[in-house]
C-alpha cells in the first residue's frame, strides 16, 4: 500500500509526502526535487534571488480575481518568461484544463458536450472520515449549472444512496459502485439531449453485478471481522463493491492490514482487489469499470457512434483511469485528471483541486507574498458554463425538458 496522496497542507508537507508508486509517478524523484526547488508546477518554496523583480509590478490582488479585466486564474496570467520555466514535460503532456481552456472550447465547438465527473477528490475534498466528504454549496451550484446545460453524470466508487445523500441533485445521472449501479435522473425535469428519442431509456438502469450481492455481503462481514483489531481501519460497504480504508491506520500497520484483506479474499475468488487513495477497493471480477459505465451512458443517451459528441470526464483516482483510457481508445472526448502532482495518466488535461478556496504561495515579490489560485474543478465548471452561455444565449434559459 502506498502513501499516494496528501491532504494539501503546506509546502513542506507536500515535498515530504510526495506520492509513492501507485500511479507510478513519471520521474517521481524529479518531481520531488522540482517541487522542493520550486519548479514544475510552481509549487516550491521561496527562491528569492532567482525570482525576477519587476519594479512597480504586482500580481493582481486576490480580491480582484474574476473581476472585469482580471484573470480568474492567475497561473495563466504569469509573464511569458516565468510561464516558460514552469512548462516542463509533465505540464506539456497534461496541461491545465483551465490554462488550455481555449483548446477545450475549440474541441467542444459544434459538439454536444456530455459531462462525467467522479465524486471523492474531484467534487469534494479528500477528508479523513469518508462519511463526512461533503460537497460545498458552491460546488453543488456549479454542478447544477453544468447539468442545466449538458447531460451530466456522476461516476463514483460510492454506493448510489451515499453519493446522492452528498450531492442531492435529482437531475443528474449516477453511476455508483464504480459504475456497477447506474440510474437516470429522478427529477421530473432532467436535462435531455435535444436529439433524445423515445426508446432511449429515461431512467437508465443497469446493475451488471447483481448476482454478486450475496458474495459481497459475506466478504464485507469477513473483512469487518478480520480488520477490527487494526486501529483506524474501516470497511465501507458500497453495495456492489467494498472499500477498506487505511488513511487513519498507522503506516507500520499498512502491510499487515493488506495481508489480512488478501487472506479474506482468498475465500472469494470471484472478487478482485485494487488500490485507490489510501483505500483498498474490492470489486467483482467482471469486465466492468467506470469506462464501460461511461460507454453505457453515452449509448443510453443515444450518443453512441456519433462524431458530434464530446464526452468530458473529470476524475482523480485510479479507477477513473479506465474512463480516460476508454475515451482515448474511442479517440473521442477529453479526460481531465485532478491531481496536485504529475502522475502517469491517460487523461489529456489536468486540474489541481476540487475547489478554488485554497491558495498557494509562489514567490516573494516586492517584499510581499504572492498567492496563486489553484486551477480547480469548480473554476473549470464555471468557465464551461460561462463559455456555453456566451455561445448560446438561449442556454441562459432552462434547456428543453421532458
Ligand atoms: O470514485 P470515487 O468517487 O472517487 O470514490 C472512490 C472512493 O472514495 C472514497 O474514499 C476516498 O475519499 C474519502 C473521503 O475523502 C477518504 O477518506 C478516502 O481515504 C479516499 O480513498 C470512498 O470512501 C470510497 O468508498 C470510494 O471507493
UniProtKB/TrEMBL annotation:
InterPro entries: HAD-like_sf (IPR036412), HAD-SF_hydro_IIB (IPR006379), HAD_sf (IPR023214), OTSB-like (IPR044651), Trehalose_PPase (IPR003337)
Cofactor: a divalent metal cation
Pathway: Glycan biosynthesis; trehalose biosynthesis
Keywords: Hydrolase
CDD domains on file: HAD_TPP
UniProt-listed Enzyme Commission number(s): 3.1.3.12
Recorded catalytic activity of this chain's protein: alpha,alpha-trehalose 6-phosphate + H2O = alpha,alpha-trehalose + phosphate
Biological processes, Gene Ontology terms: trehalose biosynthetic process
GO molecular function list: trehalose-phosphatase activity
Gene3D superfamilies for the chain: HAD superfamily/HAD-like, Trehalose-6-phosphate phosphatase related protein, domain 2
Pfam families membership: Trehalose_PPase (PF02358)
Enzyme class: hydrolase
Family: Belongs to the trehalose phosphatase family.
Role summary: Removes the phosphate from trehalose 6-phosphate to produce free trehalose.
Protein name: Trehalose 6-phosphate phosphatase
Lineage: Eukaryota, Viridiplantae, Streptophyta, Embryophyta, Tracheophyta
Amino acid at each position: 500500500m502506498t502513501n499516494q496522496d496528501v491532504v494539501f497542507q503546506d509546502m513542506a508537507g507536500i515535498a515530504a509526502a510526495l506520492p509513492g508508486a501507485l500511479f507510478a509517478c513519471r520521474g517521481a524523484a524529479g518531481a520531488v526535487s522540482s517541487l522542493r526547488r520550486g519548479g514544475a508546477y510552481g509549487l516550491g518554496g521561496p527562491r528569492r534571488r532567482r525570482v525576477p523583480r519587476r519594479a512597480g509590478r504586482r500580481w493582481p490582488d486576490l480580491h480582484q480575481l474574476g473581476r472585469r479585466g482580471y484573470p480568474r486564474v492567475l497561473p495563466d496570467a504569469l509573464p511569458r518568461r516565468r510561464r516558460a520555466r514552469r512548462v516542463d514535460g509533465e505540464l506539456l503532456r497534461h496541461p491545465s484544463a483551465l490554462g488550455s481552456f481555449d483548446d477545450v472550447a475549440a474541441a467542444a465547438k459544434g459538439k454536444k458536450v456530455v459531462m462525467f465527473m467522479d465524486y471523492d477528490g474531484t467534487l469534494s475534498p479528500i477528508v479523513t472520515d469518508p462519511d463526512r466528504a461533503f460537497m460545498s454549496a458552491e460546488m453543488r451550484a456549479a454542478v447544477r449549472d453544468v447539468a442545466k446545460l449538458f447531460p451530466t453524470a456522476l461516476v463514483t466508487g460510492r454506493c448510489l444512496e451515499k453519493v446522492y445523500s452528498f450531492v442531492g441533485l435529482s437531475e443528474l445521472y449516477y453511476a455508483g459502485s464504480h459504475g456497477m449501479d447506474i440510474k437516470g435522473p429522478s427529477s421530473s425535469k432532467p436535462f435531455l439531449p435535444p436529439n433524445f428519442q423515445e426508446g432511449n431509456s429515461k431512467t437508465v438502469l443497469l446493475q451488471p453485478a447483481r448476482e454478486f450481492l450475496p458474495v459481497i455481503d459475506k466478504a464485507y462481514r469477513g473483512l469487518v471481522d478480520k480488520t477490527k483489531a487494526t486501529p483506524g481501519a474501516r470497511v465501507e460497504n458500497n453495495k456492489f463493491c467494498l472499500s477498506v480504508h487505511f488513511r487513519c491506520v498507522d503506516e507500520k500497520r499498512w502491510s499487515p492490514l493488506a495481508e489480512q484483506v488478501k487472506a479474506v479474499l482468498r475465500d472469494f475468488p470471484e472478487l478482485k482487489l485494487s488500490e485507490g487513495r489510501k483505500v483498498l477497493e474490492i470489486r467483482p471480477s467482471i469486465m466492468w469499470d467506470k469506462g464501460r459505465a461511461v460507454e453505457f451512458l453515452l449509448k443510453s443517451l443515444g450518443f453512441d457512434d456519433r462524431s458530434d459528441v464530446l464526452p468530458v470526464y473529470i476524475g482523480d483516482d485510479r479507477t477513473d483511469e479506465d474512463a480516460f483510457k476508454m475515451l482515448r481508445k474511442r479517440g473521442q472526448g477529453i479526460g481531465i485528471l485532478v491531481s496536485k502532482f504529475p502522475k502517469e495518466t491517460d487523461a489529456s488535461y489536468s486540474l489541481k483541486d476540487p475547489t478554488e478556496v485554497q491558495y498557494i504561495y509562489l514567490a516573494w515579490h516586492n517584499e510581499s507574498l504572492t498567492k496563486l489560485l489553484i486551477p480547480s474543478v469548480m473554476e473549470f465548471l464555471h468557465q464551461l458554463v460561462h463559455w456555453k452561455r456566451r455561445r448560446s444565449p438561449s442556454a441562459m434559459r432552462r434547456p428543453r425538458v421532458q
